[in-house]
Amino acid sequence: MFGIDIIDAAFLPAASVALFAGVLSFLSPCVLPVVPPYLAYMTGISVGGLKSGERSAAPAALMFVLGLSTVFLVMGFAASAFGRLFLEYQLWLARLAGVMVVIMGLHFLHVFRIPMLDQEARLEAGDQGGSAFGAYVLGLAFAFGWTPCIGPQLGMILSLAATDAEIGRGTGLLAVYALGLGIPFLLSAIFVNRAMGLMNRIKPYMKTVERIMGGLLVAVGLMLLSGRMADLSYWMLETFPFLATLG
């Protein structure tokens, strides 16, 4: 149905990585703490008003997610187009991407620190709070903001997209990443009080989330370097035979 077969099965593990990376991006120290004020700003009320149900944050959150998804899809398309342009150098492109992803992973594991990744580069959305258009613009600005928390994860998914010559699958990876980041955001807007309580319980484990992200980056980087993504695809199809029926 979806055109997934043994030839392009590398999409399966890559998509799993993208979804997991999206969720971890939401739980990262740069994103999770700012979710309540972002929701309040986009809705045009205070955090207290948000908690009391003065106005639903779901419509604004949906527009925000659409905004960041727009940017991610364009990035995925561009990365895949770049990889297709340099198809004959695909092996070297994958190795270069692998080295870069491993380096970013070691930064998250605190093996060493890269000063550039400790700087935040955010685009201001202007005074657009309380409107659907403002929420969409804020989503665009959030996606363009290369923060130290989501930048390396996004860079990893873009690397996977660039090493896949199929533009549709490369763009699909960024769509899956957007789902992993956007769905928790939408759920937080729908179940505000429960979400805030859960966020408070998760905050003490921010360093653990960062280390998990570092381990994921290193693992994916090493697979890109060694060309083992295809082996992971075969393993997934053998372990979960129902995946073969998607093709």
UniProtKB/TrEMBL annotation:
This protein's record includes keyword Transmembrane helix: yes
Main subcellular location: membrane
Entry's Gene Ontology cellular component terms: membrane
Family annotation (Pfam families): DsbD_TM (PF02683)
Domain Cytochrome C biogenesis protein transmembrane: 17-226
Record's subcellular location: Membrane
Protein keywords: Cytochrome c-type biogenesis, Membrane, Transmembrane, Transmembrane helix
Membrane topology term: Multi-pass membrane protein
Domain of life: Bacteria
Transmembrane segments: 12-39, 60-86, 92-112, 133-154, 174-192, 212-230
GO biological process terms on file: cytochrome complex assembly
UniProt xrefs under InterPro entries: Cyt_c_assmbl_TM_dom, Cytochrome_c-biogenesis_DsbD
Stated family: Belongs to the DsbD family.
Stated name of the protein: Cytochrome c-type biogenesis protein
Lineage: Bacteria, Pseudomonadati, Pseudomonadota, Alphaproteobacteria, Rhodobacterales
